[in-house]
Amino acid sequence: MLAEPLTLSAPGKAILHGEHAVVYGKAALAVALNLRTFLQIKPSNNGKVLICLPNIGTSATWETFRLRTLLTLFSDGLDESKSPSPEQMDALKEFAGITTELSATESLGTLAFLYLYLSISAKYGQIPSVEIVAWSELPTGTGLGSSAAYCVCLAAALLTACGAIGCPVEAEKSVVRWPEEEMDLINRWAFRGEQVIHGKPSGVDNSVATWGGVLRFQSGKFTSLKRVPTLRILLTNTKVSRSTKILVASVKDKILKFPAIMNPVLASIDAISHECESVLEAMAESPSQEYYPVLEELFDVNQHHLNVIGAGHSSLDNVCRVTATHGLHSKLTGAGGGGCAITLLRPDIDPLMVEAARQDLNACGFECWETSIGAPGICLHSLSSLKAEVLRIFNSV
Ligand SMILES: Nc1ncnc2c1ncn2[C@@H]1O[C@H](COP(=O)(O)OP(=O)(O)OP(=O)(O)O)[C@@H](O)[C@H]1O
Ligand SMILES: C[C@@](O)(CCO)CC(=O)[O-]
Ligand SMILES: [Mg+2]
Fold first, then answer.
1. Same domain as 182, residue 101
2. Residue range 233-284, pLDDT digits in tens
3. Residues 368 and 379 placed together within one structural domain of the fold
4. Whole-angstrom Cα distance, residue 298 to residue 275?
5. Pocket of ligand 1 contains residue 197 by CB under 6 Å
6. PANTHER family given for it (predicted)?
């Protein structure tokens, strides 16, 4: 049970290959990024539950006794085959006074919280009065798995608060993790939160936010790649807003409309993920520059495929065009339709070339930053190990 404030964090992700196709049982390769979502949960004794979400400018407070009136609707417990029902979502929207479109940003963050709070309370006993602040280094809604990092943090915090999983704090350690079976439980609950935000998630994003590293994910199962080469990646945020839920639904419409045309494209994306995995394994075994042209070509082919299935956007085409003028190869990452692209940076690349590409991308109004891959998954932090920026945010809300 929660006696002290806890601070935890989970990473965002980039999908190297397999976005959208993974929703149809194809393989995806996902990497955890060193950009994280942080969540602080504090016990309180005012009989209220407070959630403060500065990234989306939302905060809300509810009396615990009012939340209790909704518990019967959530008493079906954790059954993975069951997604959040329309009746549950309608009841939550009414309770939270949400009248806007379901895809409105603030609504989904709040609804995912209420859904997890009530489902976890119904299953394990009501979570006491708490105050929660969640803040992310990730831009939200841009393809970097912000929703999954948020849901993984929420699931871990709420499961810990009601005692369903332990609180593995050790005085001398700055960062600690839960045992494997508890991590698995966190991941399964986070998936339910993702269902609220995405509609029909594959589970790849919450898995990588839970476990970190580099994962191959297919049909609900993942394998962590044991050895991965160091890859340098430039992330570019086109700042074109989009919603994963809407994109996944529109790709589905296209597949239903032209199955004979779209299914071979999904099969080809699957083959690209497998080919990329083999190349990464070979690179980890014997690092050599000769593999980079293959990785670059796979990026190019997959970017075309993603345009074919309807996940592209002119801003993403622009990123590809601008980086190509500097000899660099890019593709969209995540759901597409705007949001972020990833560009592969060869280790031998001239730093001036990268700088020139960044300047051209900035001139298009895009924002770029370099990142490393394979960050750790969900963890608990000691307060003294938190960066000043994170502490400042938690102290200021
Ligand atoms: N830090 C956060 N605080 C509150 N809500 C968040 C936060 N991060 C994400 N969300 C919720 O997730 C939504 C964005 O999810 P969405 O799946 O569309 O984008 P993404 O996860 O960033 O991209 P992708 O799914 O393509 O990787 C936001 O609209 C918001 O409701
Ligand atoms: C577009 C998608 O494939 C990846 C979003 O990061 C959706 C999903 O797998 O849930
Ligand atoms: Mg998402």
1. yes
2. 999 999 999 999 999 999 999 999 999 999 999 999 999 999 999 999 999 9
3. no
4. 8
5. yes
6. MEVALONATE KINASE
Spacing, Cα 207 to ligand 3 middle (Å): 12
ipTM: 0.99
Q: What is the pLDDT of residues 223-239, one digit of tens each?
A: 999 888 889 999 999 99
For the CA of 135, the closest atom of ligand 1 is: 1
- Does one domain contain both 215 and 257? no
Tens-digit pLDDT profile for residues 372-394: 889 999 999 988 889 999 999 99
Q: From atom 10 of ligand 2, which residue's Cα is the shortest distance away?
A: 201
On whether both 268 and 351 belong to a single domain, the answer is: yes
Ramachandran angles phi, psi of 17, nearest 5°: -150, 150
Computed over its alpha carbons, how large is the radius of gyration of the chain? 21
Atom of ligand 1 nearest to the CA of 334: 26
DSSP E strand boundaries for the chain: 6-17, 28-43, 48-53, 58-63, 130-136, 175-176, 214-218, 221-224, 232-237, 329-332, 340-345, 367-372, 379-381
Q: How far is the CA of 204 from the centre of ligand 2 (A)?
A: 7
- Which atom, in ligand 2's list, is nearest to the CA of 334? 6
Both 115 and 202 in one domain: the answer is yes
142 lines ligand 1 (CB under 6 A): yes
- On whether residue 1 sits in a domain, the answer given is no
Residue 380 within any structural domain of the chain: yes
Full residue range of the structural domain in which residue 95 is found = 6-223+375-396
Q: Measuring CA to CA, which residue among 310, 304, 316, 224 is closest to residue 272?
A: 304
Ligand 2 within 6 A of CB of 277: no
Q: Is 22 in the pocket of ligand 2 (CB under 6 A)?
A: yes
Catalytic residue numbers read: 147, 205
Q: What is the CATH number of the domain that holds 292?
A: 3.30.70.890
Q: How many domains does the chain have?
A: 2
Sign of CA pseudo-dihedral 381, 159, 11, 283: positive
